[in-house]
From TrEMBL:
One of its GO terms (molecular function) is glutamyl-tRNA reductase activity. GO terms for biological process: protoporphyrinogen IX biosynthetic process from glutamate. Residues 321-419 form the Tetrapyrrole biosynthesis glutamyl-tRNA reductase dimerisation domain. This is Glutamyl-tRNA reductase. The keyword NADP applies. NADP(+) binds at G190, A191, G192, A193, M194, G195. Homodimer. It comes from the Bacteria. The keyword Oxidoreductase applies. Gene3D superfamilies: Glutamyl-tRNA reductase, N-terminal domain, NAD(P)-binding Rossmann-like Domain. Catalyzes the NADPH-dependent reduction of glutamyl-tRNA(Glu) to glutamate 1-semialdehyde (GSA). Belongs to the glutamyl-tRNA reductase family. The lineage of its organism: Bacteria, Bacillati, Actinomycetota, Actinomycetes, Micromonosporales. The gene is hemA_1. Pathway: Porphyrin-containing compound metabolism; protoporphyrin-IX biosynthesis; 5-aminolevulinate from L-glutamyl-tRNA(Glu): step 1/2.
């Protein structure tokens, strides 16, 4: 088995493609089961955020795994596979490991260094664990990716500016509202993870008074109480839109929450002359596409943020994280090589036990006068001799296998002892594939 990561992000696809690819939380278990039911895919973890959808998989072959995963994503999104291929990045083997560690450390994020991706990866791993779609390889990859992300944030200043998608969006909003957002009335639509992050960020930057609305009033009430904001019923949305300058919308709705008619009505009720700036952080989008261009309305979505290039960390900080990633990739590849030799070592020990058992049967057939105690003594002695002979070579071969080029030692053992070890098929694999990412 080897690792394959396939996905689309703000780097390779616009928001129209990402919203078709996006996967509601309720659909993730079903899609994970569909992935691991494919011929070349044995394990899968699925990450779906506002600016990326990607699959991490353990596959028995590169081309077969690529085709299986692309077909599942195509069927889910309704985008023909031939069209979808132009928006996907693909990483295989070592490149897949490196990509996962760069993602977890924030190096591949729209806002470099943001920490939200760690929570999103943790949720994706938890979903895969609950669905039993993560096996030994992906359990290890996800655990190490989360650890690498924590190292990056703890040991470098990659996130010292506290940047996130929300802070980047607010910087864009400030450009349209005179540069200072302090005291600007604002509304957050949605009380999920991104909504909660938005409320926390708005509060910290002095935006307010702040109102929160959500289809589930209880969640809006709890979030408002935690931050000293005011929860408003979703039925009052039209009125509130006419009273605020900033809207952050981050719901999980599959249909636009802010329709053209709703926004047009709200804009008509505004009397202060300020534009209404809507930061649409949802995928699928919360703002209806036909609302674009309404007088007095500014909409900033994921596409707009992707081109704004806000608040990049210092080169020294990103270089420090890249160095951490490189070292951790080497460690993980060593673990993979060591794990790959384990079946060969197990097969060697099994072969030795079979030889001992066969020789014991021959001996006892020749010496029927042996008592049960004598038979047990001879059997234990033979087993101890074999285990002692095998101990040092098997320990050493595990050490050698963890080094670059270590796969040759497993092959050598199989050849020398004529071992029959079931191995993953890599006949159609390529050494490393790195797509646009």
């Amino acid at each position: 088995m080897n690792l394959l990561s396939i996905g689309a992000s703000y780097r390779t696809a616009d928001v129209a493609v990402l919203e078709r690819l996006s996967i509601p939380e309720s659909d993730i278990p079903q899609l994970l089961q569909k992935l691991v039911a494919q011929p070349y895919v044995s394990e899968a973890v699925l990450v779906s955020t506002c600016n990326r959808v990607e699959v991490y998989a353990a596959v028995s072959g590169f081309h077969g795994g690529l085709g299986d995963i692309c077909n599942v994503l195509s069927q889910h999104s309704g985008i023909p596979a031939s069209e979808l291929a132009g928006h996907l990045y693909v990483h295989y083997g070592e490149a897949a490991v490196r990509h996962s560690f760069r993602v977890s450390s924030g190096l591949d994020s729209m806002v470099v260094g943001e920490a939200q991706i760690l929570g999103q990866l943790r949720d994706a791993y938890h979903a895969a664990t609950e669905s039993d779609s993560a096996g030994r390889l992906l359990h290890e990859l996800m655990q190490q990716a989360l650890r690498v992300g924590k190292r990056a944030h703890a040991e470098t200043g990659i996130d010292k500016a506290g940047q996130s998608v929300v802070t980047a969006a607010l910087e864009v909003a400030a450009d349209h509202l005179g540069g200072d957002l302090t005291g600007r009335p604002a509304l957050v639509i949605g009380a999920g993870a991104m909504g909660a992050l938005s409320v926390a960020t708005l509060t910290r930057t002095g935006v307010g008074p702040l109102r929160i609305t959500n289809r589930s009033a209880d969640r809006a009430d709890r979030l408002a109480e935690a931050y000293g904001a005011v929860a408003v019923p979703i039925a009052d949305l039209r009125q509130v839109l006419g009273e605020v300058d900033i809207v952050v919308s981050a719901t999980a709705s599959t249909q636009p929450v802010l329709t053209r008619d709703l926004l047009e009505s709200a804009l008509g009720a505004r009397a202060d002359g300020h534009p209404l700036v809507v930061l649409d952080l949802a995928v699928p989008r919360d703002v209806a596409p036909d609302a674009a261009g309404l007088p007095g309305l500014v909409v900033v979505d994921i596409d707009g943020l992707a081109t704004s290039r806000r608040a990049a960390p210092a080169a020294a900080e990103t270089a420090a994280v890249e160095q951490i990633v490189t070292g951790e990739v080497d460690n993980f590849l060593g673990w993979m090589r060591g794990a790959e030799i384990a079946p060969t070592v197990a097969a060697l020990r099994t072969r030795a036990e079979e030889v001992v058992s066969a020789e014991m049967r021959k001996l006892l057939a020749r010496r029927p006068e042996f008592t049960e105690e004598q038979r047990a003594d001879v059997s234990r002695t033979l087993h101890r001799v074999v285990q002692q002979i095998l101990h040092s070579p098997t320990v050493r071969v595990r050490q050698l296998a963890a080094e670059p080029g270590g796969d040759q030692y497993a092959a050598l053992l199989r050849e020398l002892f004529d071992l029959d070890v079931p191995l993953a098929t890599h006949a159609d694999a390529v050494p490393e594939i790195g797509g646009k990412a």
